[in-house]
Write a structure and sequence with these properties.
With about 325 residues, the chain is α+β, with helices and mostly antiparallel strands. It has 2 domains: about 100 residues, Rossmann fold (3-Layer(aba) Sandwich), CATH 3.40.50; about 160 residues, Glutathione S-transferase Yfyf (Class Pi), Chain A, domain 2 (Up-down Bundle), CATH 1.20.1050.90. The chain has 10 helices and 13 strands.
């Protein structure tokens, strides 16, 4: 799918904004704070159904009562998203839905400036990043994750009650065990696929013999549902004292290794950039392999962090995708 145009009304700091997209590469120029990232955010909402950084109430322009996004593809399909301060509607072919219908979701590879700090981020930020990536690979992963997070929230709410009986958690323990084991299996599988390509892709950017891999760390590795459930039940007193669930895939982490050492502290800034670029190229390739769709590439102010060689590599590797780039300066 190729985006033809997008129009924003009362979206962030835009009263009204219109972008006619190029089939290959579109460049959005503007100073910091001018709303460039907001355009990518609107495209992401139109293609994925939700924002990558905020709630709807935070997106609506201050002093207005609604926001609206109008996105048109080259094949004539149109999507209209409206939020009135309470409800959000996705309108497609004269039908309104509260969520973006699955058949209208389209894969996206998103590059944010914060991604260049992924290696040194907290475990939670890395989990969020890979959850977003894996959800692009597999809709079932996304659904399992949503069910797991809902169950975890309910269990943690109950754990705030000092007089809680263990059996009150049983149904939520079952749900966490069911979806936690599935999530763990998928994460192991996806990381293996990424690792099989990571060093080769990195070397194509850095032009050296360095080794790169990601170590997926989890307490749930190889556990069946019954064992996962037992661990939750064994930790009841500890969890009640802490007020939250201390075991599970919500505590997982992804450690980047560079030449057999932890990359955070051993890889230079330039080497780190090359690792993240390699990760993005692999993400796009895996989406195409699994979904047979070329993802739309959204790059937010990424060139300001890249030297000329890596800029050329970025363009070269994404040349057969539709790419929409924001920048504070024209790109040579």
């Amino acid at each position: 799918m190729i985006i033809k145009s997008i129009k924003l009304i009362n979206f962030r700091n835009h009263t009204e904004y219109y972008l006619e997209c190029d089939d290959n590469t579109s460049l959005i120029l503007g100073e910091n704070g001018s709303g460039k990232t907001s355009v990518l955010e609107a495209i992401y909402i139109s293609t994925r159904g939700k924002s990558f950084r905020a709630t709807d109430s935070e997106i609506i322009k201050t002093g207005t009562e609604f926001y609206r996004i109008e996105l048109e593809y080259h094949n004539g399909e149109k999507i209209f998203i409206t939020y009135d301060g309470k409800n959000k509607n996705f309108q497609t072919l004269d039908k309104k839905n509260k969520r973006l219908p699955k058949k209208y979701k389209y894969p996206v590879v998103l590059f944010l400036p914060s991604d260049l700090n992924l290696i040194s981020h907290s475990p939670g930020r890395r989990r969020d990043y890979f959850n977003r990536v894996f959800s692009e690979f597999d809709e079932n992963y996304n659904q399992n994750l949503l069910k797991y997070e809902k169950s975890l929230k309910q269990r943690n709410e109950l754990l705030k009650n000092d007089n809680l009986a263990p059996e009150a958690l049983f149904s939520w323990n079952l749900m966490l065990a069911k979806y936690g084991t599935k999530i763990c299996e998928d994460r192991q599988k996806f990381i293996q696929e990424i690792n099989s390509k990571l060093t080769t892709t990195y070397r194509s950017i850095a032009e050296n013999d360095d080794e790169v891999n990601i170590d997926y760390r989890t307490e749930a590795k190889g556990l069946l549902e019954t064992k996962y459930l037992q661990n939750l039940e064994m930790n009841f007193k500890k969890d009640l004292y802490l007020g939250h669930t201390s075991f599970g895939v919500h505590r997982d982490d992804y450690i980047f290794n560079f030449n057999y050492k932890i990359a955070d502290g051993s890889a230079s800034r330039g080497e780190t950039r090359s690792i993240i670029l390699a990760l993005k190229f692999i993400e796009a390739n895996l989406i195409y392999e699994k979904q047979h769709k070329k993802p739309i590439i959204l790059l937010d102010d990424v060139f300001s962090e890249l030297d000329p060689i890596r800029r050329k590599c970025l363009i070269k590797n994404f040349h057969d995708h539709q790419v929409i780039i924001t920048s504070v300066e024209a790109i040579a």
